[in-house]
Amino acid sequence: MNKADLIEALNKETGLTKTKAIEVVNLFFGEMSKALAKGDRVEIRSFCSIYVKKYKEYTGRNPKSGVHTQVPPKKLPFFKCGKELKEKVDNK
Fold first, then answer.
1. What are the distances in angstroms from CA 19 to CA 7, 33, 44?
2. Are residues 34 and 58 in the same domain?
3. What domain range includes position 71?
4. CB hemisphere CA count around 12 (13 angstroms)
5. Which CATH number does the domain housing residue 3 bear?
6. Is 75's pLDDT higher than 80?
7. 50 and 10 share one domain
8. What angle do CA 83, 87, 88 make, to 5 degrees?
9. What pairs with residue 49 in β-bridges?
10. Which of 10, 35, 44, 72 could be cross-linked to 40 through a Cys-Cys bond (beta carbons 3.0 to 4.6 Å apart)?
11. What is the pLDDT of residues 33-50, one digit of tens each?
12. CA separation for the pair 78, 37 (Å, rounded)
């Protein structure tokens, strides 16, 4: 499923116009992005939690040239699956 599929499902299930469905989906993902950018945790009960994981600086190596280089610290979003979603996927 992609964003367009989600918009289409919202349109069919709720009767919202396609324009309104687009606004709702964009609002949902926009607010999640803002929260993560601020360093907040996003939790959708029984589905998942997403939080920002901080990684320290480290010395890396270019696999092609073998040259060692310093990799700066970084922050990346981390997805953790909820128990109910895990069970639903596993049971097919």
1. 9, 21, 25
2. no
3. 41-92
4. 6
5. 4.10.520.10
6. yes
7. no
8. 115
9. 43, 80
10. 35
11. 999 999 999 999 989 999
12. 13
